[in-house]
Amino acid sequence: MLIDFFFTLKDAKIPVSIKEFLILLEAMQKNVINPSLDEFYFLSRTTLVKDEAHYDKFDKAFGLYFKGIDAIFEKNPEIPLEWLKKRMERELTPEQIAAIEKFGYDKLMDRLKELLNEQKERHEGGNKWIGTGGTSPFGNGGKNPEGIRIGGEGGNRSAVKVWEARAYRDYDDERELGTRNIKVALRRLRKFAREGADEELALDDTIRATANNAGYLDIKMQPERKNNIKVLMLLDVGGTMDDHIARTEELFSAAKTEFKNMEFFYFHNCVYDYLWKNNRRRHAERFPTWDILRKYTPDTKLIFVGDATMSPYEILQAGGSIEYNNEEAGAEWLQRFTSTFPKFIWLNPEPEGLWQYRQSISVIRQLMNNRMFPVTIEGLERGMRLLSK
User: Fold this and answer.
1) How far apart are the C-alpha atoms of 194 and 222, rounded to whole Å?
2) Per-residue b/e over 66-87, b at no fewer than 16 CB within 10 Å?
3) DSSP 345
4) Separation CA 376–CA 316 (nearest Å)
5) In the chain, which ranges are E strands?
6) Which residues sit opposite 274 in a β-bridge?
7) C-beta separation of 25 from 46 below 8 A
8) Strand duo 192-201 + 221-227: pairing
């Protein structure tokens, strides 16, 4: 049974070896775990996966192979929360939504502090207390054009802040592309140079040297011709970007293939005073944005990737970040990036036809001097053409 499991992991492009597989079998033979699917999951992940970057692939492969077996190990499984219907979910007419009061950011935060002091019990529905359903600006599962989501999952994309521990996952840089057209579009941004050791046959020089040597072979070598462009890619992750994971992973994978001198960092919604490279450790391993601005030379090509869909407060106001109280507005950090790196663009995976309906997209486009392009072949070609000028 486990031999097929081993090949399932290999098919998922997880670099597992025979030695690690034998260690897993030895651990199973010595009964180091109880007959539990959960314990086997952690044991197999510990013995077979060497890098946290492959955890997502492992989870998918494990779920694919052992689908349905968990019922054997779990006699009384809990019903997943996502299967339960929201008791107070309801659809409001446009007139009802327009009638709901918009507090404004400062007033909204002050009102939340008052309710936290006053409220003593759980609430569902209504338009005042922190709870689920209803039209209150505080809680989850209801509808309000401007609110603070506390717990639960979002649906209307209108929250100005989210109070919860949010987990994002890294984009997969080994994703197989559905088409090579993305790579072809990215190749418009090229600046070739020959650097490094002489490892490639210089055919023209060899012919010329051999002719000058009275026909005796005189082989000449030269460094490999490589794309010398330097790229800094900043990727929005989590929240509304979850709708665009597949397309963003294709773009990210193609960019890492085409641009050998590429660095990347993650942000959420808008850039602030720190970025990160690993979403699992984003609270422990942060890179100050000032360090990034100083580290890379001005000739670096800057590419933002994000749907620019957020509350305008997150861009224009200090403390407007959906996750924490940022000291400076996101717009100030965006202007610092565009001033430091004159060659910049913003790639937006959201369909271009929807841009006019997102206030935050209009704000970002203004800050980017209208250098926003859709993640389509035509959009990528236009963006790369602009960066290469």
Assistant:
1) 8
2) beeeeeeeeeeeeeeeeeeeee
3) E
4) 28
5) 123-124, 131-132, 138-140, 147-150, 159-163, 192-201, 221-227, 230-236, 261-267, 274-275, 287-288, 301-305, 344-348, 372-374
6) 288
7) no
8) antiparallel
- On whether the CB atoms of residues 275 and 339 are closer than 8 A, the answer is no
Encoding tokens for residue 22?
Answer: 């034998």
What pLDDT score does 120 carry? 56
Closest CA to 176 of 74, 246, 88, 272: 246
What's the CA gap between 119 and 125, in Å, rounded? 14
DSSP state of 353: G
Residues of the chain under the 70 pLDDT cut: 1, 67-181, 184, 187-188, 190-198, 224-227
The predicted pLDDT at position 21 comes to: 87
Element (H, E) at 327: none
Q: Which two structure tokens, joined as six digits, stand for 328? A: 């400076």
Provide φ and ψ at 275, rounded to 5°: -130, 180
d(CA 364, CA 350): 13
Q: CA 256, CA 174: separation in Å to the nearest integer?
A: 9
Contact, 240 vs 170, CB < 8 A? no
DSSP string for 187-225? TTS--EEEEEEEEEE-HHHHHHHHHHTTT-----EEEEE
Taken as a whole, the chain contains a residue count of: 389
Q: At CA 30, angle to CA 27 and CA 32, rounded to 5? A: 65
Separation CA 251–CA 189 (nearest Å): 14
Helix H or strand E segment including 22: helix 18-29
Tokens found for residue 158:
């209108």
Full-model pTM: 0.53
